[in-house]
Amino acid sequence: MTIHSKLASPRATKAVLERWGLATKKSLGQHFLIADNIVGKIMTLADLQQDDYVVEVGPGIGTLTVALLPRVAGVIAIEKDASLLPALLGNVTEDVDTFKLIHGDALDVDREQIAATSQSMCMGMPNKLVANLPYAVAATIVLEYFKQMSSLQSATVMVQAEVAARMSAAPGTKSYGAYTVKLQLLAQPSGSFSVSPANFMPPPRVESTVIRLDRKEQLPPELLEVTFEIAQAAFFQRRKNIRNSLLAYFSTSEIGSDVIDEVLSIADIPAQIRGETLSIAEFIALARIWMDVTR
């Protein structure tokens, strides 16, 4: 039987925690993965190649890290919890040439810092994100990394099941919202599987999902930003129709009802429908018209 991670078992995880005097921290959403078969499924879904460079957020004690390192050209891991760093570094001693640790909050670590770290290792910029993400910030991390890191071609991440539902939602569904539109402007889901709480130590109180997202062809930067804003405006007051939601969102700007009515008319979008009914393509078309009318 293939062992994907030497740390992915209750016994191994307990041994590491005891050796380094560690305990999980609820404030950081720490739940250590203890199922090697799940690690294997993550590796398969991520479709790792020997020339890939991976960024991993929240490596913890290195459960995924030790599975990643033999399969790729390099791993940059970003860990916020200083108490975990000795254990993490102690578990990757065999791969020091292809591993680099950044101690910090993943939402504060910008593209330039990751680029500098890559250069210091003579590595390319990461083209894949593979991680068991801290659940409280998982949605934000995935969106921001696709926005900031043009080199990132895919993300295979463990997230709360309801977050995965938002990432992959279709128009007209309960989970479809501004976040969905923003993420799906950048990337599209290409696979997922469920993970029960029993696969973690300690077990979380929620169901988890591993989801893979693949980058889509990039929109021009200005169009992308305008589409982001239109999506935010369309869901600003979700229960209202799109006209009223846009009016409420832009109420403090110089954009009035005449402009909004003109844009909707040209886009052939009925004023009484809700934003949740629009597809990604329709949001892009609406943004293009918005740019033409408001210039």
Task: Report on this structure.
There is one protein chain. The mean pLDDT is 93. The strands form two sheets. The protein has a seven-stranded mixed β-sheet, with helices on both faces. The chain is an alpha/beta fold and 295 residues long. The relative contact order is 0.10. The radius of gyration is 21 Å and the shape is elongated. The protein is built from twelve helices and nine strands. The chain starts with 9 loop residues before the first helix and ends with a helix. Helices cover 40% and strands 17% of the residues.
In short, what is this structure?
The chain has 295 residues and is α/β, with parallel strands linked by helices. It is 40% helix and 17% strand. It has a 7-stranded mixed β-sheet, sandwiched between helices. A two-stranded antiparallel ribbon has the order 1-8.
> What fraction of the residues are assigned to beta strands by DSSP?
15-25%
- How confident overall, as mean pLDDT? 93
CATH topology-level name of the largest domain: Rossmann fold
- Model regions low in confidence, pLDDT < 50 over at least 5 residues: none
Report how far apart the termini are: 63 Å
Reported for the largest beta sheet, the result is: 7 strands, mixed
Question: What secondary-structure arrangement, pairings included, does this model have?
Answer:
Layout: H1 10-19, E1 32-33, H2 36-46, E2 53-57, H3 65-68, E3 74-79, H4 85-91, E4 99-103, H5 111-120, E5 128-132, H6 138-148, E6 154-160, H7 161-168, H8 178-186, E7 187-195, E8 200-201, E9 208-215, H9 221-234, H10 242-249, H11 257-267, H12 280-294
Parallel strand pairs: 2-3, 2-5, 3-4, 5-6
Antiparallel strand pairs: 1-8, 6-9, 7-9
